[in-house]
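G.,

No rush on this.
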Amino acid sequence: MADAQQVAAEIERLSEMSPEAFMDTVVRYVMGGTDKRAQGETQGAALHDPRLAPRTLQALRTAIQRAKAYNPLREGESRKQQQARIAPWRETIKAAMPPLEDVVDDLAHEHAKGLAALDDDAFADRWTGFILDEPVPAPTSPHVEALAFRSPRVARRAARLCHLMLEEPARFMPKPPVGESGNAEERRVDNFRRRVESEAAFLRYALQYGEARQGRMPAEPNVRLQALKVLGERHPEELMELLRQERGGALEKAAEERRARRAVKRAARQGAR
């Protein structure tokens, strides 16, 4: 069993590494490499510690995306041979993830409890900071924060805030820069809304998953109504013009049907004479 003091020292050392150096260290450990500065048991305990586990997991996910960089093409090797060599490497990386995911899930569960206990103003501030991609207060990591907000415990509360954010973005966005042009403001608001809509989709999945686990059939979102709402928020004048055109077309169609019915009645009356 690793010594607690040695593990604490290794956590401190690893925490001070740059993202690239940390990822290289994690990959080397997972692939069975040695580190002269720490014993394997001590380093493993440090990397799986709740203080480092989120960062370790993210490093492994990034490493998979950069598999070719960790397994460069060798002289005389074909691309197909390289892929065959990368496949078991990638599987080894993936096999190291589940224990870390368990640690991160536990952290998110506990963090969700804290979020649920916040009053409305504090919760809104925390959710707004998450939407704006502001730094997450230590020791929470961005990944743990995201999982906590998407948990059934707080997802519905966050989803309600999403509706308000889409309806009144200025209420939640930072003050605009001095001298901001109209086009720049529109882009800033559009970017904010896109982030809100993206997170709202994750929240919807979380809520539907919670309903399914309780044996209820999740309600499918009304996509057409949502699209109409977004169109009205972004282009209200165009939407009103479309509605006027559709309303005018519907009225004209109804008038034609009435004229046709009257013509049929007149023809019937004439035939009866």
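When you get to it, here's the other one too:
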Amino acid sequence: MNQLDQITSGMGLEKGYFYEMYGVECFVEAAPHWRRLEPFLYRCAELNKLGCIKKVIYQVTDDRSYISELFEMAENLYSKEMNEGALILYECVAAGEKYQHSERLALCQYRIFLLHKTMSKFDNLAAAVQLEPYIEKLNEEIQLDAVKDLANVYNTIHHWDKVYELAEELERKVDFQLELQSRRRKNRKRTAFYPIFTYKAYANLLKASVCEACKQYEKALEFAKHYIMNF
């Protein structure tokens, strides 16, 4: 890729000018090799050459031996906020894993949900329905974030029964995590985005908002008190 970029620069052409031709010759018309494919995908993501990624990636996913590498690369792009490129890779991995019912598939679906939400590319109810079956396959701590995010989506469309149900589910998962923490080593790496106790507080805040929307003001006040006490 470095040589190709230098040739392009020496010819006075825009960055990535030959990427489409390179992708076809090296990865579509020939058997792809990960040592060449990885830098190509990464550079395309940097330059937002999404069409080049799509043209190559759908050819590559026919070979399931690259699924793990594509997932790791998607995670890398996601951590660097190269969201458009990451989304393409997550969707390809999810399509390749759709019959596996794995934690990796569940995490792909969760990342797709978050990226669509970030980019305002999805219908709220459809996205929530698509994510929900995968939550139990996620890492136990990541489930806390997924349930919280799912509840927030239902909250925006005023689906109050579902919000309350998910708030209770969030509370149960927090209690389970707190029980596990008491038996685990304290230096164990956490995967939840927030400290565990904040999810219980947020569950009570969700319940308070539901009760307020349903004009159950005394119950709303009670849950609001629990929310404050959790902090």
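DSSP finds twelve helices and no strands in the chain. The two ends are 51 Å apart (CA to CA).

Enjoy the weekend,
O.
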